[in-house]
Structure to design on (504 residues):
């Protein structure tokens, strides 16, 4: 028996999110099915991030156990031949049998992309959120800096997240403007349910002038569930990568 | 009667190109149909660039004549409400009744986008061409400079283009690298059928080391139809905009 780690990229448009569902098509469901037919055993993957319906990923992580004799690093190419075009395995490798994608020290990076113009751009519309009200990227940048460090993100979580603590640490939060695109890139040690989309929605409220950049500090000082936002649409969100800090230490 | 000019953006993935077809769905066909139902008259648009199946646009141009009393600049918003999500009118305006989108002094700008990595990126796969062989962007940049100026592009045209001359002028041809994306941006006074895709295919051949950057000069010195290339896939190509030089002069 060996444990294989996959880096999984997908266009989430046509999927009901990561997590397997009885009837709907999900990334997890497709991976189990295609790995099962490739390896000739029943396969159950465990995903690092159970992304929502419509959210995209470049580097989500999944692991599974298998009896196969196919070398770990060969599985990516073989599996890609069976997967639909909108799911692409970026790498596969054998990991220690106690490696669990969710119970480790990780840093996750997400990007949220906004297209800000009078009319939408259909070429990239599947992976940006269109905002026609003019946004002030400089105000958004000022506000983004307030996210850095350790804070209670209760205001940025939606009802019923079953989590012990709502404190998270943000290592990087940048707003970049490239023509009509405004992108928020954020790296943290973990994110509450809908937290990145609530952060993006908060920056949009600030960018359009409805709120001041100082509002972010106020949301941390007087936290209340769902106070931030609004929750920006899923299609603008991409999980860029997940960094496993232990792997990094071992590589040193 | 007035003549209206539209700037048209579309994701070409689900269309059989611009030009109207008896059975297949095309951009021109959809525009005629939706304008007809909006304005209550039979409308026939004339497109500036009859893009191929799968090619995208941010700023293709179409004109049509109408008896409507709706102000020209209002038509964009009204038409967008009827169009599918993958076609978006960027602007509409009244133009002189002798304005013809194809018989004028224009500068067209295209971008050709390549994703260069071991595995494809499904998030942007609808509008890039995936190349897994490593490309040397610096070699491509050197070759791109050879396109500048006036040249006989016969080698970059495919069989049967019914054109008087194959001489065209290129004002800008840049290769930019952004992570795993390599983009060729080219502006010219006109392009032969498949010429931009042949230019992109030529740069790819050079980038992967099959040909030297000097090959471009050789293709100009000893022109022969279809000698360049190969013809890179349609999905990587986007018509960025069409500049009407006369409009610019009038604006001065």
């Amino acid at each position: 028996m060996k444990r294989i780690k996959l880096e999984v990229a997908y266009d989430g448009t046509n999927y009901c999110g990561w997590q397997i569902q009885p009837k709907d098509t999900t990334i997890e469901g497709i991976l189990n099915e295609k790995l099962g037919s490739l390896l000739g055993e029943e396969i159950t993957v465990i995903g690092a991030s159970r992304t929502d319906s419509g959210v995209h990923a470049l580097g989500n992580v999944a692991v599974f156990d298998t009896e196969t004799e196919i070398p770990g690093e060969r599985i990516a190419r073989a599996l890609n031949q069976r997967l639909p075009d909108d799911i692409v395995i970026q790498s596969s490798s054998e990991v220690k049998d106690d490696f669990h994608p969710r119970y480790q020290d990780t840093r996750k990076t997400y990007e949220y992309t906004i297209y800000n113009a009078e009319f939408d751009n259909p070429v990239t519309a599947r992976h940006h959120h269109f905002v026609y009200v003019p946004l002030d990227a400089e105000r958004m940048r000022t506000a983004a800096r307030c996210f850095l460090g350790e804070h209670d993100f209760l205001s940025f979580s939606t009802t019923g997240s079953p989590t012990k603590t709502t404190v998270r640490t943000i290592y990087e939060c940048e707003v970049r403007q490239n023509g009509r695109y405004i992108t928020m890139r954020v790296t943290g040690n973990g994110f509450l349910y809908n937290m990145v989309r609530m952060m993006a929605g908060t920056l949009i409220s600030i960018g359009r002038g409805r709120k001041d950049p100082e509002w972010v500090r106020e949301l941390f000082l007087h936290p209340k569930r769902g106070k931030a936002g609004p929750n920006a649409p899923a299609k603008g969100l991409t999980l860029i990568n997940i960094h496993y800090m232990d792997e990094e230490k071992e590589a040193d």
